[in-house]
Amino acid sequence: VPMTPYNCTVQFALNKVPHTLCVVSSPALRRRLKRSLHASGATVEFCDSVTQANARNEVPSLLFLDHDSRLDKELPHLLQVMDKHGTVIIIGESIADSDFVQLMRQQPFDHVMDADEPDENEILVTSVKLLTGDIFGLDKYLGWGADLKTHQVCGYEDKRKALEQVATFARESGARRKILGRIENVADELLMNAIYDAPAAAKAGAAGQDNLYFDVGQNDVVDPATKPATLTFGCDGRHFGVAVVDHYGELRKKSILDNLLRARESGGQPRAGASGAGLGIFLVLAAASRYIANIQQGVKTEVICLFDMRLSGREAPSCTSSLHIFYS
Fold it and tell me: Residue 192's pLDDT is what?
């Protein structure tokens, strides 16, 4: 039975109830975490410092850290324990900070929420996905009853028609002009990755070559053996969501972060002689409100991008406020 926020508590009752530990100082954030994590079916504990957290005997399933605790000099020991037995979620940091992205490459930081007081639903969905292992599906991020559209895409003409459907649906959903442009561009980029880059990356990996994923080149010719990608999109009034699944599972955290940093270092300009130039992930992360990658290595990848429909183009951030990388 697929796990959802509505049945996970029952499942946990049959097994060991997962434990979450939060090392955060803000009273408002503590209240928000308590509400959301309790709703996920997990027990919730708060510590005032990393030193206090290190003194505990029980290793939590999930560890939430704020900016101050992330900088604590006692943190490395706790991270070493969590890297083997649990998952770390960072709140109050931003991937707009290249120094923090460099740190993510070295540390087990796969989940980052920029806002000091993140959305309760984001905390809930992230926690339930991590605690249950049920990671795939755009429906988890949109409100109940949202109408989701799905298209199979296996070539350039399929992609063109699918993008027209996305644009029409987004326009009819009330997307403002600048947000609409972002939705179209991101959907196009995700489909290009799925039908051109992912198969090429799989071939490169099979041949023992380095897998850059977002920098393998693109053209209008699709290998006949390419597995169709699945595009899903929908809107719940607050967020417009776009999800693309490829059946290769070649995306890696290293590829995401390396290409982001490389494109940022070049000022978002293509490198001479580089096809693709790693700009895809840079452009996607600059356009979406939230970026989620669900990966079953060697099997499939689902990338989900959410767009806040309440924001005007002027209010829309220049970098995604949340980055999540889940593994099945």
Answer: 94
CB 127 within 8 A of CB 42: yes
Report the C-alpha gap between 117 and 31 in whole angstroms: 10
Q: Which of 133, 244, 145 lies closest to 194, judged by CA?
A: 244
For residue 99 the two structure tokens come to 């120094």
Q: Is 118 helix (H, G, I), strand (E, B) or coil?
A: coil
Strands (E), 127-223: 148-153
Tokens 């039975």 correspond to: 1
- Is the pLDDT reported for residue 319 higher than 60? yes
At residue 13, does pLDDT exceed 60? no
Three-state helix/strand/coil letters over 182-200: HHHHHHHHHHHHHHHHHHH
Closest CA to 37 of 48, 21, 49: 21
**Which segment of 2-6, 202-206, 278-282 scores lowest on mean pLDDT?**
2-6
pLDDT band at residue 42, thresholds of 50, 70 and 90?
very high
Torsion of Cα atoms, 162 then 284 then 91 then 63, to 10°? 70
Beta-carbon count within 10 A of 250 CB: 24
Per DSSP (E only), the strands in 127-238 are 148-153, 229-235
Q: Mean pLDDT across the stretch 105-109? A: 94
Percent of the chain with pLDDT over 70: 85
Of 105, 259, 272, 271, give the one whose Cα is nearest residue 193: 259
Confidence of residue 272 (pLDDT cuts 50, 70, 90): very low
**CA dist list (Å): 282 to 51, 169, 229, 256, 270:** 37, 25, 21, 9, 11
Alpha carbon distance 283, 285 (integer Å): 6
Phi-psi region of 207 (alpha: psi -120 to 50; beta: other; left: phi over 0): alpha
